[in-house]
What we know:
Layout: H1 2-15, E1 30-35, H2 38-48, E2 51-52, E3 64-70, E4 73-79, H3 95-108, E5 115-124, E6 135-143, H4 153-158, E7 161-162, H5 173-179, E8 182-188, H6 196-204, E9 207-211, H7 214-223, E10 228-237, H8 244-270, H9 275-278
Parallel strand pairs: 1-4, 1-5, 5-10, 6-8, 8-9
Antiparallel strand pairs: 2-3, 3-4, 5-9, 6-7, 6-10
Helix pairs in contact: 2-8, 3-7
Amino acid sequence: MFFNSLAHLLILLLTAPHATEAQNGSPIQHVVVAVAMEAEAMPFVEHLGLTKDEGVFESHLPFLAFSGNYKDGKVTVITNGKDSVYQTGVDNVGTVPAAMAAYLALHKLQHKVDLLINAGTAGGFQSKGAAIGDVFLTTGVVHHDRRIHIPGFDSYGIGKMDHTSSETIVSPNNLARSLNFKQGVVSTGNSLDKTDVCVKTMLENNASIKDMEAAAIAWSCALLNTPFLGVKVVTDIVDSDVPTQEDFVANLAAASKSLQEALPLVLEAVLGKSYTELR
């Protein structure tokens, strides 16, 4: 009994959330970049000359990792891989694979990751100044489709985290100014389109952009006390009359190109900086 209790205690201590070196004031040296779709990730992987890393995920999982050195640091790109459960072969999009891939990667690389960047395309609100191709850095995350109308659970459903209330959400103010990027709250849901209730919830939470994974990945980061930053490029306009899927397909290539241009700039700006410098 004594040895079982001791073993359990050791596991808890070894897997407990910890402050990264960057949070303690040391320079950011290892950045994980989480990207949902292969079309968004691979040009960036190839540009940085990253190679496939078999040591991050177990072989039976669909998730993929690519690692390598960049400038004075290390970069690991993770993607959700392709669907085999439903036998569609499409990208694993949405909150479940995104949260799972991020958690497993951070847990595997624990004590070695200084910052997680969730990069990808998103819808944008023109009423918040968004236009196709704009790059947004996230000031906070919320959910817009977790409707649980029970006291307490309603706030849980929204799942609001921002840089003023969460230690793991990076304030992008300095970074946005230096790179001339826009900034705002990203609202996450599991559907490409939206209902009137979704739009109402997004506007109530001051969302500038809409995606399918940021809030879920930020939740995984919070569990493992890893700083989170979202980098989103606008593919479609949420508050327009054009159907979301038409806007998305028409602008995906151009937005992906904009993302490839933005990500190296973000990496160069954060590597070698401390967490406090980014805030």
